Known about the structure:
Layout: E1 5-8, H1 18-27, E2 33-38, H2 50-56, E3 70-75, H3 80-88, E4 93-96, H4 104-113, E5 117-122, H5 131-134, E6 140-144, H6 158-173, E7 178-182, H7 190-196, E8 200-203, H8 205-208, H9 213-224
Helix pairs in contact: 2-3
Amino acid sequence: MNRYRIAPSILSADFARLGEEVRAVIDAGADWIHFDVMDNHYVPNLTVGPMVCQALRPHARTADGQRVPIDVHLMIQPVDALAGAFIDAGADLVSFHPDASTHVHRSIQAIKARGCQVGLVFNPATPLDVLDWVIEDLDLILIMSVNPGFGGQSFIDSALRKVEQARRRIEVCGKDIRLEVDGGIKADNIRRVADAGADTFVAGSAIFGKPDYKAVIDQMRAALV
Ligand code: DX5
Ligand code: ZN
């Protein structure tokens, strides 16, 4: 099985029918469910909390009963208490922005100690330097290719350079760390993002904005072959 993962972001789903939307996108071939948490403080938008994650957890399964990871992207400040609440709510991965936590190393350890996978997220203008000190503790690095807060924005090209740098750091570290990219990903640019070194792709409006989710996911996979 190839290493690429497609993670539809429910930010662009129909919030009045979220369980159905999660099942539909999994039936269409989604590998992960990307769950965007915004607090109207760290980012200028407000979404959903742990109760919604918990309500969706039973829906995040394939037709033959396999668990589909819920990939929680925290755009919140402070981080620690809500990170724990999302782990209780069934998150499989919890990622946070290092600039949103006063004690990044502590936040990472707290998430890992709960048996959850942990990721760090880098905004378009945020350097990767913190990785010098914590990369070995991570399961995931998430590069933002838009400014966080909204779906449907255009891909920022400098993210490609950052993905290349992050890939080099992962190689040097030698650990099995996923490299995810979030924002403005479509079937027509996913190949470039993969060529820069990404293996996991968040896509919100590109998938949920279209009537046929499977057609879009199939196009993305075809571009990745
Ligand atoms: C933005 C979110 C993204 C968003 C991506 O802050 O983190 O996950 O849903 O949406 P698209 O794919 O539409 O850019
Ligand atoms: Zn996201």
